[in-house]
Each structure stands twice: as structure tokens, then as C-alpha cells.
UniProtKB/TrEMBL annotation:
Pfam families: PALP (PF00291). It comes from the Bacteria. Its cofactor is pyridoxal 5'-phosphate. The keyword Iron-sulfur does not apply. SUPFAM superfamilies: Tryptophan synthase beta subunit-like PLP-dependent enzymes. One of its GO terms (biological process) is cysteine metabolic process. Belongs to the cysteine synthase/cystathionine beta-synthase family. Keywords: Pyridoxal phosphate. InterPro entries: Cys_Synth/Cystath_Beta-Synth, TrpB-like_PALP, TrpB-like_PALP_sf. This is Cystathionine beta-synthase. It comes from Maribacter hydrothermalis. Residues 12-310 form the Tryptophan synthase beta chain-like PALP domain.
């Protein structure tokens, strides 16, 4: 008798069910137990696979998307990659309107995944008809039967995490999670995951990580958008200069800010000490944990779950490049020496 073939029907069946991995060396001097939800195990290498698939499947159920329809979004990042991947399998056209600030590497990557990419000028205001927001909106209007994912304002974003990330963490921790720490960009990850977890146990503390230069923390504290908080920063995918409709601020207990430099170093430290090759915002989450530990947030019985959103390979020319780190002023001589190649 032949053994059965155990294969997935297509790559999308691998979205979700990412592993929870205990953090060892990097957490050695911290109080409590630390676990990372490693979202790079998604086939598109980030948590955005979950929202792309969920939003597309909901549109299919509603009869909006049928074979040959078009999916539109404004992103050069992880979400764009995930939508492009799902579009290939499901037979949709994928149009991504991106800013001319996006690196050629990223644009090539999206085109390699079959997406049609419109590169729009970066230095025009959001309401300028040439901006990537306006181009996406126009294309959506002009293309019959298209959907515009609009991840910052789409409630299905948090719903994807409510239905998948939250239950997975609850099950993987046997209900013993005490703290959830995650980055807030659109806010979908932290809001949806936290809502599910707090429904199981309202005592779970939910801490969102924000960037210096972003308005989220101040908005959470005051209910007001303070434009003085806005200035450029390097971390991509974390923080925002507007208030995203996809964030449920009421479910988040606290926001904490992290710097570009410390987050970059901490991402490199995770890769070096845990062997988990992570992106910039995973460094931000871990950096936030270190700061929270110094503030005595945790005790010996704390079971802290950190969400590591994506894979390090997307940051080779950034945080994993010594040259880039040096150009940003992030490297001191000590760390340069430590990473120098040995000449034989
Ligand atoms: N990290 C990275 C690398 C991201 O691309 C994003 C999404 N913008 C986030 C973190 C934040 O996730 P969310 O949008 O669900 O808040």
C-alpha cells in the first residue's frame, strides 16, 4: 500500500498557526518568562498575511471579489507582499500604489510577485491627486468590482487577529499569558489579539509599542491628536502621524515609546542571541520589554508574549548593514569592532 501524499493544496494554507518560541539568552537578566510569536513563519514572512487573506476572503463571501477582480492597496511593505501573494493563488489582479520613497528592492520584490506597482511622488500632500492615497482611490473608483484594502481604516484588520492570533496565543500559552506586548502601526494586531485575550481573561495587561515621532501614545493618554509629536523616524511599520481607525485604543492599557537606535541594536541582538532572524519592529518590541522590566512591570510569574511581526531579510540594507547603521549614527566604535571581519 502506498503512503498518502501529505502536501498543502497551496501556499495560503500555511498562513497563521505561527510558533510561540521561548526567549532564552536575551531574557536571561529579565524578571519573568518571555515568549515570542514569530510571525516570520507565515509564508509571506509577516503577520500581514493574516489580514490580507482575511479581508480578501470576507470580500469573496460578500460577493464583491470574483475571479479576475482587482485588489488595490497603498503600501510597499509587508501588506503589499501578502496581498500580491494571495492574489496569485486566487487569480486577482493586484495594484499597489507606493511612494517614490520606497526602495527599488521593495518595488522589484512586489513586481516579482505579480503586482502592478504605481510609483507616486512622495513629496506631495495626501490630498494631491498624484499622491498614492489619491491614486489608489481613483483606481478603486475606476475599476469595477475592485476592493481597496485600506488597512489603516479597515475593521477587518483587527478582526483577522481577533479570529487567529488571539486564539493561537491563548491556546499556545494554555491560558497562562499575563502580558501581551506588540507594535502599533495600523493597530490591527494589538487590538484584535488583545480583544480576544481579554475576553478570556480581563486581567491580561496589553502594552502597545510606539515610536518617538508618532502621535499614538499621546492620543491614548489625552484623546487628542498632537501634531507637535510628529517628526521623522527610521522604524518602518510602527507608529503613525494620524489616528488609525483600525486601532481600538480602549483595549490597550499602556503605550511605550522606543528609539530607532535601541530598536535596531535589539533586533540585531535577537538574531545573534536567539538565532531568530527578525525585522526592525521585533527589535522595538524587545526593546520595550527591556524598558518595562527596568520599571518593574513584571514578576517571576509573568508570562510575557511578544509579537515579532516580520523577518530580518527585508532589512539587509538597513539594520543589518553596518554601513547603514553607521550612516544613522547608531554604531559606536565598540560595536563596529565587534562585528568586523577577521582577515586571514
Ligand atoms: N511591524 C511591521 C514590520 C509592520 O509592517 C507593521 C504593520 N504596519 C507592524 C509592525 C504593526 O502592525 P499593525 O499594523 O497590525 O499595528
Amino acid at each position: 500500500m502506498k503512503n498518502e501524499i501529505r502536501a498543502y493544496n497551496n501556499i495560503l494554507e500555511l498562513v497563521g498557526n505561527t510558533p510561540l518560541v521561548k526567549l532564552n539568552k536575551i531574557a536571561e537578566n529579565l524578571t519573568g518568562n518571555y515568549y515570542a510569536k514569530v510571525e516570520a513563519f507565515n509564508p509571506g514572512h509577516s503577520s500581514k498575511d493574516r489580514i490580507a487573506l482575511h479581508i480578501i476572503e470576507q470580500a469573496e463571501k460578500a460577493g464583491i471579489l470574483t475571479e479576475g477582480s482587482t485588489i488595490i492597496e497603498t503600501t510597499s511593505g509587508n501588506t503589499g507582499f501578502s496581498i500580491a501573494m494571495a492574489s496569485i493563488i486566487k487569480g486577482y489582479d493586484c495594484i499597489l500604489a507606493v511612494s517614490s520613497k520606497s526602495s527599488p528592492d521593495k518595488i522589484d520584490m512586489l513586481r516579482s510577485m505579480g503586482a502592478k506597482v504605481y510609483v507616486c511622488p512622495a513629496h506631495v500632500s495626501a490630498d494631491d491627486p498624484r499622491s498614492y492615497y489619491e491614486v489608489a482611490k481613483r483606481l478603486h473608483k475606476e475599476t469595477k468590482g475592485s476592493i481597496y484594502i485600506n488597512q489603516y481604516f479597515n475593521k477587518l484588520n483587527m478582526d483577522a487577529h481577533y479570529k487567529s492570533t488571539g486564539p493561537e496565543i491563548w491556546e499556545q500559552t494554555g491560558g497562562q499569558i499575563t502580558h501581551l506586548i506588540a507594535c502599533s502601526g495600523t493597530g490591527g494586531t494589538i487590538s484584535g489579539t488583545a480583544r480576544f485575550l481579554k475576553e478570556q481573561n480581563p486581567n491580561i495587561k496589553v502594552i502597545a509599542v510606539d515610536a518617538f515621532g508618532s502621535v499614538l501614545k499621546k492620543y491614548h493618554e489625552t484623546g487628542k491628536l498632537d501634531t507637535n509629536e510628529i517628526y521623522p523616524y527610521r522604524i518602518e511599520g510602527l507608529g503613525k502621524n494620524l489616528i488609525p481607525g483600525a486601532t481600538d485604543f480602549s483595549i490597550i492599557d499602556e503605550f511605550i515609546k522606543v528609539t530607532d537606535a535601541e530598536s535596531a541594536h535589539t533586533a540585531r541582538e535577537i538574531s545573534r542571541t536567539e538565532g531568530i532572524f527578525v525585522g526592525y519592529t521585533s527589535g522595538a518590541v524587545m526593546q520595550a520589554i527591556k524598558q518595562l522590566d527596568e520599571l518593574n512591570t513584571f514578576n517571576m510569574n509573568s508570562n510575557v508574549v511578544a509579537i515579532f511581526p516580520d523577518h530580518g531579510s527585508r532589512y539587509m540594507s538597513k539594520i543589518y548593514s553596518d554601513q547603514w547603521m553607521e550612516d544613522q549614527g547608531f554604531l559606536n566604535t565598540e560595536t563596529v569592532e565587534e562585528t568586523q571581519e577577521v582577515q586571514y
